[in-house]
Amino acid sequence: MQKKNIMLVTINSMKKITLVAFLVACLVSSHAQIQWPAITKTAKPWTYWWWMGSSVTRQGITQNLEDLHTVGIGGVHIIPIYGEKGDEHNFVKYLSPEWMELLKHTANEAKRLGMGVDMTAGTGWPFGGPNVSPGDAAKVFYVKAVKIKDHANVRDYQKTNDNTNLLALAAYDEKGNYVDITPRVDSDGLIHWGEVQKTWKVYAAFQSFTQQKVKRAAPGGEGLVIDYFNDSSILNYMKTFEDAFNQAGIEKGNVRSFYNDSYEVYGANWTPDFLPEFRKRRGYDLLPYINYLADTSNVEMRQRVVTDYCETISDLLYDRFTKNWVKKSHEMGMITRNQAHGSPGNLLDLYALADIPETEAFGASGFLIPGLRQDADYEEDRFGRPNPLTMKFASSAAHVGGRKLVSSETTTWLGDHFKVSLSQIKPQIDELFVSGINHVFFHGTTYSPKEKPFPGRLFYASTNYGPSSHFWNELPALTGYISKCQTILQHTKQDNDILLYFPVHDMWKKQKSELIISLNGVHNTKDWLQSSPFGYLAQRLWANGYTFDYISDRMIAGLNVEGKTLVSGKAGYKVIVVPSIEHIPLETLTRLRDLARKGATILFEKDIPADVPGLFDFEKRKALVAAIRNDMLLLPSNVQVTSQLLESLPGKRIYAEEMVRKGLEFVRKQSGDSTFYFIANLSDRFSEDWVQLATQSKAIEIYDPINERRGNATIRNTKTGTEIYLQLYPGQSCILTCTNKKIKKQKWGYLKADETNKQEIKGEWLLRPTQGAPEIPAPVTLQHPGSWTALGGKYETFSGKAIYSNSFEVSAELLSAKGFLLDLGNVRETARVKINGKDLGLVWCLPNKIMIPAGIIQEKNTIEIEVTNLSFNRIIQLDRDGGKWKNYHEINFVNIRYQPFDASNKKPEDSGLLSEIYLTPFTAKEP
Questions:
Q1: For the chain (length 927 residues), average pLDDT per consecutive 10?
Q2: Contact criterion met (CB below 8 Å) for 401 and 761
Q3: HSE, side-chain direction, 13 A CA sphere, residue 919
Q4: CA-to-CA distance for 741 and 598, rounded, in angstroms?
Q5: Dihedral of the CA atoms 12, 16, 22, 26 (nearest 10)?
Q6: What does the CA dihedral 470, 473, 474, 476 come to, rounded to 10 degrees?
Q7: Which long-range contacts does 20-26 make (Cβ < 8 Å, 24+ apart)?
Q8: For residues 42 and 257, is the Cβ–Cβ distance under 8 A?
Q9: Which are the contacts of 627, defined by CB distance < 8 A and separation ≥ 6?
Q10: Is residue 722 a contact partner of residue 668, using CB atoms and an 8 Å limit?
């Protein structure tokens, strides 16, 4: 392709425009390219930033921030954790005046650099610390069947240990009647024990403390985990932060956000006033029914009581912890980021309370992209795979709740240490984008003094994005890509058709005998999501290209109807879909009927639920549900019951995006009258074809955020949308801008490879290492490209950069081609290409191909390919030599299997160019 046919946009020279100007540019301009909004610090990726032992200095903070700024990081998230052994004299106590001065310096330096600062509201995780009293600490409730030894008293069950208190004893006679036999203390202090009969069954209810302490706590942050279901616990906890910030004089806004990590409060399911709260919220006393809490059978009564218990815990987590945490954060001038997953609450509601809901991409992504490296040490059974349907809980809450940003903890345990490549990271980023995420946080970077030898300080559960990372010099390519994509994703709103009802009550009723409630984790989606009718329907909608958000009971209560559109804030939807479920709250079904009467469309899969969750007056409530069911069936134009739900959607003018069936994934957004698609090819099923969009457009611009190519696509209109001809090879992504304005732009340059004149670059290759460690090997001559690790000697554990160079000839008759495509094949891991001294750029993600404009290739040519490999081989040598770099308190440094990390006996990773290099001329293609 001619150079004049490629539009290159330098991000730093982008004209700053407001969102309004952006929309005008998108919709009105008829003689110029679409202008994108300026890249802001929020559009750039941010990073978790661990302070080990809070052993940081003002100079070091400045240096670290400047380094991160240089590679395109927009902000940092401070998390103080345990420190290095032997460095204790440099530890700074958390929230001490000295620590607060370091925080103030960080905020000031970040502001100077145009960066942002977030911080965990605590050290490590979960919330807790030295100021948490036993009264404010996490508690557990459990029920045990009691064997009556002497048929007269249960003195042995008053206490099981010093931290466990007997709350109640409940006896049940032969007919199941409840008798309270809890011991009573009279005015003289004498204990009276309830009498029981030999044939009765007795259950004891206990309250105890979980004794959980903050995990990975920093100095000054050690202590008990708080009670997440009690007002005073979180208010007392936040008071410590208020005092510290006020005394330090930190200006409001200098720290953008407080953060709450994923819920890992093990065993907690109780608070001292749980019983009166249960009575107030559920309408009956719990104690007469505690036998059902110890019962493992799934009888109806047990399911109803357990559901009520779970809903009460959910309410308390919502009303007491999350609301108060958000409120206090706002009072301190900060917004909130919340990872609600793993909690016992209704995930959607908890996410929606935060200013920035945050999901988590934990583990390796199982993409079928040819050439994508896989980590042999990854255990899928242990971690599972990141599931976009899980990520959609955070993005759905943001969309329905009107939140602009949805963030993600990104690439946690994507691979084992020193073995993650940029080409592995990009597919996970793309999957986050198609799941609705638009604010990426790398997980992450560890503060490390510049004088600290390789590999510097490191946190164990992360991908290293810091200066000691093997891809540090190439990182701007990834951050630039993310910044360009997020600029669009943050300035557009969702364009989803369906609201899919999340039936949390049907999930609560399945709790086992232990009332340790932890739904909605990112690691156990097979247990709670994929195996449920809700999850199954969500997967079918996703796999067939339908656009949807999840919605909760509380969110349904807040919906309105405008015409036939369901409206939540500024978000509009065409239909509510209720999966095949057994129970639905009376209030929710009533609201659905009212919405249908106002013109909304409600689809029920298989049947309208006939039962209600919970125990109180359930027969009466079931009768009311039956009446509402009859009412809804009298609204056939707006209410439909079908066992062929997906097949019924086109009749409601809801169309699938058929690209999904070809192997593409997407997110669809809107701004003004324009529709935007971010599309990623994360499979091996598509390369080029006509793609049907469920959007009618007169013009579509294609934008390649990697190479910054853009142009008007070839399209053709159909009855249900517009078809676009798309060339998108495995690993690639693009952004489409669809408009009904006729915009005069240059055409997108479709390419047709001339496979008949494809040639391998043969001959001797000179391999010349240029920088790296532990030692730089001598240059060698190769008969063909290959892994330098296989050369043995110093090459075996060499990590760094090495140049493969060669010369080649091209027939004169081929020089008239529009350009050439250079296919590097299997690259480990990144490659910078020069031909005839011309820098053609960095190849860092799949496919490992680079476009060469016309005029560069001559009859006689030289080629240089500078390859950077992983640092794992260097670590092998460091461990073989007995290097003392793993020297941390707490968990020290573990591998992906949570075993002590030791690379000394590991096989070196292949490095360099592992396959033949091909050059193919191309011509312009007219679809």
A1: 32 34 37 69 98 98 98 98 98 98 98 98 97 97 77 49 82 92 78 79 91 97 98 98 96 96 93 97 97 84 94 97 98 97 94 97 72 63 72 97 97 93 96 98 97 97 96 98 98 97 92 60 74 94 98 98 95 97 97 97 97 98 97 93 96 96 97 96 96 95 95 91 96 96 86 96 97 98 97 98 98 95 98 98 97 96 98 98 96 93 97 98 95
A2: no
A3: 24
A4: 34
A5: -50
A6: 130
A7: 22/491, 22/671, 23/671, 23/672, 23/674, 26/671, 26/672, 26/674, 26/737, 26/739
A8: no
A9: none
A10: no
Total number of residues shown for the chain? 927
Residue 718's contacts (CB-CB under 8 Å, 6 or more residues apart) are 692
Name 445's bridge partners: 49
Residue 704 is predicted with a pLDDT of 97
Is the preceding peptide bond at 130 cis, omega within 30 degrees of 0?
A: no
Give me the amino acid identity at 81: I
Spell out the residues 6+ positions from residue 607 whose beta carbon is closer than 8 angstroms to its own: 580, 641
Token couple for 614? 């919970």
Sheet strand arrangement including 688-693? 688-693, 722-727, 715-717
pLDDT in tens, 497-517: 999 999 999 988 877 655 655
Helices (H), 274-355: 274-282, 290-294, 300-316, 323-331, 347-353
What distance separates the 2 farthest-apart alpha carbons in the chain?
Answer: 111
Give the residue from 143, 168, 141 showing the smallest Cα distance to 269.
Answer: 141
Closest CA to 750 of 564, 924, 579: 924
Please identify which residue in the block is written with the tokens 């997980």. 443
Q: So what's the pLDDT on residue 16? A: 34
List b or e across 753-769, with b for residues whose CB sees 16 or more CB atoms inside 10 angstroms: eeeebebebeeebebbb
Instruction: State residue 516's pLDDT score.
Output: 54
In whole angstroms, what is the distance from residue 759 CA to residue 918 CA?
A: 6
The pair of structure tokens assigned to 810 is: 């091209």
Q: Are 390 and 339 in contact (CB under 8 A)?
A: no
Q: Is 478 helix (H, G, I), strand (E, B) or coil?
A: helix
Structural contact between residues 139 and 227, judged by C-beta atoms closer than 8 angstroms: yes
The CA R_g of the chain, rounded to the nearest whole Å, is: 30
